[in-house]
Amino acid sequence: MKSRMRKNKKPAITVKDDRASNEDVLAVIADIDSGREYYMSFIDMFQLRGRDYVVMYNYEPDDGSHREPEIVIMRSERHVTGEQYFKSIRDKKELDAAFNMFYSRFVHREA
Q1: How far apart are CA 32 and CA 108, in angstroms?
Q2: Torsion 97-98-101-107 (CA) sign
C-alpha cells in the first residue's frame, strides 16, 4: 500500500530529530489506490541502510471496545513536491531488519 499525508491535515507536532517525541504525533494518511483515510499515531522514526522508516499504529479513541493496537512499520519517502509518502515493506528481510532496529531502540529507550 502506498499512502501519503493529506495536505490539509498536519501533525500537531513537528518531529525534528530521528525519533518521535514522547508526545503523540497524529496524522491522517490516505491510501493512494483506494482513497481510504487512516488516523495514525506515530511511535518512532529512524534511518536504516540509507532509508527512512516510521513506526505507527491505527489511532482510535479509547472507548474500551477496541482491541490492542498493532504496530505498522513503513518506509517513508519524500516526493520532489515535498509530500511525505509511506510505503508498505514487502521484502521480509527488510521488514525484519526494520523491526529489529525499532525493537532495539524501544528497549534502550525504556531502560
Answers
A1: 35
A2: negative
Mean pLDDT of the chain: 78
Is 79 in a helix, a strand, or coil?
coil
pLDDT digits (tens, 9 = 90+) for 2-12: 555 544 333 33
- 9 grid coordinates: 491535515
Q: What is the pLDDT of residues 27-52, one digit of tens each?
A: 888 888 898 888 888 999 999 999 99
Query: 58-93 burial by CB neighbour count: b if 16+ within 10 A, else e?
Result: ebeeeeeeeeeeeebbbbeeeeeeeebbbeebeeee
Domain count along the chain: 1
pTM over 0.85: no
| Closest among 7, 87, 83 to 53, alpha carbons compared | 87
Residue numbers of the domain that contains 8: 2-110
CA 95 to chain centre: 13
